[in-house]
Structure formats: structure tokens, C-alpha cells
Amino acid sequence: MRRKGLFFISLVLAVLLLGACMDQSNTAENNTADMNAADDAAVNEAEQEDTEAGGWAEEESEAPAAAEDSGSQPPVTETESFGQQVIYTAEMSIIVEDYDQVEQNLRDEVASRQGYVVDSTMQQEGEEERQSGSMTVRVPRESFEDMLTAAEAGAVEVESLSTRGNDVSEEYVDLEARLRSQEIVEERLLSFMEDADSTDSLLQISSDLSDVRNEIERVQGRMNYLDDQIAYSTITIAIREERVHVEPLQDQASLNTWERAESMFMSTVNSILQAGASLFVFVVGASPVLIPLLLLAAVSFWWFRRRRMAPRTEG
Fold it and tell me: Could you tell me the superkingdom of the organism this chain comes from (predicted)?
């Protein structure tokens, strides 16, 4: 009987100890879960904002159809609130008569429209040194068509012209939504950082905050680039010079006919005198050799002539 009583008491104590351990474990898990839930709340809310921003465009696309059926005015979409975000570019090739004049005129046109020249190249080709080159300019979007018209006006012929518009409205709206969601996450993380009560929590929140800020800077940088490309259109102009160079007639004064004839006559006389002087110098200089040779030649001639005449005299 005593053994049964001891066994029953031991069993009750074991159940009580097991229940206390389970309560302590549940308390620790609940604390950890509360902390993780607080950290995830901002991320989930930001993702919800991003999802709502992405789904907003679909809702807005369905709104006009519903408005037509009901006869009411459709709401303004976010893309319409920004306006069409289009990047305009153009490439053209022109033939001109005077390269330098046309290039300077184009520079003046760009400056008058508050634009600027990105780069410019020029080279000369052929015996007539014809010039060719290219210019890349950027002008405000509203001056895009006017700049093309001005370039065409200064050309003898437009060889080619191509324009292109890249609509980035959808990308711009998406970047705006991503930027807003990341800013919300940043605000939540900052508030959590103020309430953090441990070093580990501060380190984790700081790491997450750094990633969020890097993403904000990346998105903002892309938006700034798109803003610049939208605000200023880019035009590349290839310029080729074609002209026939005709030499002008020279007047009598520039021909110098009499002076040139007199100079040629004096050159001829000087050449004759120089040749005679050279011959005289040669004869005098070579006389020690020439005189004996001339005497030998004269004696030989006289001797052969005498022998040929001797038989005739005897006959």
C-alpha cells in the first residue's frame, strides 16, 4: 500500500515538472516569434504596397471599360498623371557644299535652343581635301523637330533620316512604385531600430537598412537617367562635303609675262656663256695632252696622204 502511494506521488510530481518545462519553452518561443513578427511586419506591408501598386495599373486599365458601360468619367491612371515618357533619338546623313559653315550653323542652332554638343569629329579626304565628319547633339525634347528641320535646311541633299521614340512610361511607373515601397520599408526599419533592445537586433536591422538604402539609390539613379534622356533628345548628324573646286582666272599682273620671259632669256644666255667657259677651261687645262695628240695626228695624216700620192707620181 505504501509503495502504491509513493508511486502515485512520483507520477504527479513528474507531470507537474513536465508541464512547467513546456510552459517555459512556449514562453521563449512566443518571445522570439513576436520579435520576428515585428521585423517581418514592415516587409510584408511594403510588399503589400508594391503588390497594390502593381495591381493598381490593371485596375486602372479595367476602369475605362467599366466607365464606358456606366456612362461615368474614367479615373486618371498613374501613367497619365506623369504623361507619356518617351525618349526621342534621330540619325541623319546630309551632303553640304561648305562643311565648316554648316558645322558652325548647327552649333549656333543647338546653342540657341539651350542644347549642347556631345562630340564632334572631322577628317579630310581626296586630293581636293573634301571634309567629312559627324556631330552628336542633345536638345530639349520640345526642340527635337525644329533641330531636324534646321539641319535639313543647311544641306544640299539629305541622304538618310531615321527617328525613334522609346516609350518608357511603364518602366517609369514601375520604378515609382518600387521607390515608394522601399521608402516604406526604410521608415519601418528606422522605427524598429529605435525600439531594438539587443545588439543582435541592431546589427540585423542595420544590415537590412543598408540593403534597402542601396536599392533606393539604384532605383533613384535609374529614374534620374530616364529623366535626363526624356528631357533631352539625342541627334547624330553625319556630314559629307561635296564641291567642285575651280581655279579662278589670273589677271595680267599676276601672270608676270614680261618678267618671266626676261628671266628665261637671261637664263639661256647664262647657260651658253657657262658652257663656253667650261669648254675653254677644258681646252686650256687639257692642252698638255691635246697639243701632242694633235701634232701626232697631223703628222700621221700627212704621211698617209704622201704614200697614197707616191705611186701616181711614178706612173
Answer: Bacteria
